[in-house]
């Protein structure tokens, strides 16, 4: 492949250097995938499912209320429906039950006649719940991808990250694990390959949406998933795409991340995630339209609540916690469904780990947190695990339940732990935008951007490339309802003009942009079309003299 030197340089920076690796990474038909039976307990798990089907037993798929859980649940239902109609599913309420397995739900599932529960995207560390299931005669199979500690559920667990699992790729999303289970079931039963490949649209959404690294097998799944999404005949999904203004044939990974996934997540954040599962499986046109309208309504409300809550958090932080190194924000009446997103926005705004806690009954608080680069939130919280009623998560995000009176202790411990980390790494909070490539004026071209697009799909561990360009700002213009955005022209060293936009609070750049001096601009290059003419535009992430 005859690539520009800058693209080769970029690929090498991302660890893709050999000719074979480059060919695989850029291939329209990547082949990096692994035998599902390499997953520990896959044989036992498939036997458990097929034995239940042979005996005519009722199987309940137990999912999660985010896009990964929703797509995983839909995928498992769809594939198993080719072998049995004795199926049901259960997704816990974010508000009443919280994440993962709970004994109350298992009791209900048993009372409704289920014999086997198959989890997707949850359950690896649900030790007490697994024991309870056993005590009431309910068989349990866990399929999951979350971090596993010293304790693991006492039932067959299919999770690539569990100790002793030989699977060569450890970072599948929940829907990726469900897909591997589906592949194994198809191999054992002789189901047509098309039964499994029809679910790739779901795999693409869940994999991109759960922010797992888009490398290795995940890149294969995301690529084929995007292709499947762009030609999907899934009625509910197609109607949702139309409802949110996306056109099949032109859907990219960022459309999944910023449009499709938030609408699916909104059902579980604001109302009931079952709405999204039903939409993905529904055939009735009237019901489909009702569910699409509901998801759009929920997402609109989610955005409004999110904006209001973030502003309240800013006020609290700046009034009470500006000297803290870890923000623990107690909100009495925040909507539980959006606290995780807001914690992420607080983290981004101040470059500090942040947890938001809300009341959850029984004199307890429910916490959800997000972390900055270089701080493993799971390990940080695990150091205070004895304070929690429930606790789980991974390096970047976590959730827990804690008695209200223990919150000051947690706040103190987390800040102390951060002080120790900071002393060991004084650069921990220095958030600096680093470019992937420095490009000269002569190298800025449509061809360069077109070759960068070969690196799609973009996401975790394969972000859209940031380029650094020297330019003199001119023709500044404010945009946005509150004038919070900025458009300007960058005059390059060769005299060419490059349109630039800042889609975040641009006030911090006012002085440097108005100086009249040549500056260094970092951002993502894209191709825009206006009146059938194509032109380059730089979306600015940072600027400095």
Task: Describe the protein in words.
With 545 residues, the chain is an alpha/beta fold. The protein is built from 19 helices and 16 strands. It has helices spanning 5-13, 19-26, 42-54, 67-80, 103-111, 127-135, 174-189, 193-197, 200-209, 216-231, 235-243, 253-270, 274-281, 285-321, 339-350, 377-382, 407-424, 446-452, 510-513, and strands at residues 59-62, 87-90, 116-120, 139-143, 157-158, 327-330, 354-361, 364-370, 388-393, 397-403, 437-438, 467-479, 485-492, 497-502, 519-530, 533-544. The radius of gyration is 24 Å and the shape is globular.
Entry summary:
The chain has 545 residues and is an alpha/beta fold.
Q: What proportion strand?
A: 15-25%
Q: How does the major sheet shape up? A: 5 strands, parallel
Residue-averaged pLDDT, rounded?
95
- Poorly predicted runs are none
What is the strand arrangement across the widest sheet? 2-1-3-4-5
Secondary structure: number of strands: 16
Using only C-alpha atoms, the radius of gyration works out to: 24 Å
Structural class: alpha/beta
- The number of helical elements comes to 19
Characteristic terms for this protein:
545 residues; alpha/beta; 5-stranded parallel sheet; 5-stranded mixed sheet; 19 helices; 16 strands; 19% strand; globular
Layout of helices and strands:
Elements: H1 5-13, H2 19-26, H3 42-54, E1 59-62, H4 67-80, E2 87-90, H5 103-111, E3 116-120, H6 127-135, E4 139-143, E5 157-158, H7 174-189, H8 193-197, H9 200-209, H10 216-231, H11 235-243, H12 253-270, H13 274-281, H14 285-321, E6 327-330, H15 339-350, E7 354-361, E8 364-370, H16 377-382, E9 388-393, E10 397-403, H17 407-424, E11 437-438, H18 446-452, E12 467-479, E13 485-492, E14 497-502, H19 510-513, E15 519-530, E16 533-544
Parallel strand pairs: 1-2, 1-3, 3-4, 4-5, 6-7, 11-12, 14-16
Antiparallel strand pairs: 7-8, 8-10, 9-10, 12-13, 12-15, 13-14, 15-16
């Amino acid at each position: 492949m005859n690539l520009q030197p800058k693209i080769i340089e970029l690929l090498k920076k991302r660890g893709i250097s050999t000719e074979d690796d480059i060919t695989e990474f850029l291939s329209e038909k990547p082949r990096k995938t692994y035998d599902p039976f390499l997953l520990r307990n896959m044989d036992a798990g498939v036997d458990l499912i097929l034995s239940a089907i042979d005996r005519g037993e009722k199987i309940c798929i137990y999912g999660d209320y985010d896009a990964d859980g929703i797509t995983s649940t839909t995928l498992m239902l769809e594939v198993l429906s080719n072998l049995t109609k004795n199926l049901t599913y259960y997704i816990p309420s974010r508000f009443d039950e919280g994440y993962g397995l709970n004994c109350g739900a298992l009791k209900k599932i048993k009372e409704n006649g289920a014999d086997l529960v198959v989890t997707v995207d949850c359950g690896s560390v649900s030790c007490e719940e697994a024991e309870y299931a056993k005590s009431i005669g309910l068989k349990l199979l866990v399929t999951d991808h979350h971090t596993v500690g010293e304790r693991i559920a006492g039932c067959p667990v299919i999770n690539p990250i569990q100790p002793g699992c030989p699977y060569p790729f450890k970072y599948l999303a929940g829907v990726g694990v469900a897909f591997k289970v589906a592949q194994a079931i198809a191999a054992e039963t002789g189901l047509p390959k098309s039964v499994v490949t029809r679910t790739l649209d779901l795999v693409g959404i869940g994999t991109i949406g759960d922010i797992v690294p888009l490398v290795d097998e995940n890149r294969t799944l995301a690529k084929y998933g995007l292709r499947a999404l762009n030609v999907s005949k899934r009625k509910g999904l197609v109607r949702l795409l139309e409802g949110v203004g996306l056109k099949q044939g032109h859907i990219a990974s960022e459309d999944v991340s910023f449009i499709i996934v938030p609408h699916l997540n909104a059902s579980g954040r604001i109302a009931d995630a079952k709405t999204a599962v039903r939409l993905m499986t529904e055939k009735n046109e009237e019901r489909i339209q009702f569910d699409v309208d509901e998801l759009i309504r929920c997402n609109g409300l989610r955005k409004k609540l999110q904006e209001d809550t973030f502003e309240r958090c800013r006020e609290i932080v700046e009034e009470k916690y500006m000297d803290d190194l870890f923000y623990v924000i107690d909100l009495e009446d925040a909507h539980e469904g959006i606290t995780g997103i807001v914690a992420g926005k607080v983290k981004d705004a101040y470059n500090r780990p942040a947890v938001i806690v809300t009341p959850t009954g029984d004199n307890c608080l429910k916490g959800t947190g997000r972390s900055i680069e270089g701080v493993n939130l799971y390990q940080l919280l695990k150091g205070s695990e004895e304070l929690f009623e429930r606790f789980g998560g991974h390096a970047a995000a976590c959730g827990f339940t804690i008695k209200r009176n223990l919150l000051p202790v947690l706040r103190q411990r987390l800040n102390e732990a951060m002080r120790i980390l900071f002393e060991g790494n004084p650069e921990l909070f220095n958030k600096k935008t680093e470019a992937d490539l420095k490009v000269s004026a002569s190298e800025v071209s449509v061809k360069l951007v077109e070759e960068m697009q070969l690196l799609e799909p973009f996401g975790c561990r394969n972000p859209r490339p940031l380029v650094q360009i020297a330019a003199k700002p001119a023709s500044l213009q404010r945009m946005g309802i509150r004038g919070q955005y900025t458009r300007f022209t960058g005059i390059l060293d060769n005299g060419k003009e490059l349109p630039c936009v800042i889609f975040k609070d641009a006030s911090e750049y006012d002085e440097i942009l108005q100086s009249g001096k040549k500056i260094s601009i970092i951002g993502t290059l894209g191709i825009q079309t206006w009146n059938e003419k194509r032109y380059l535009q730089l979306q600015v992430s940072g600027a400095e003299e």
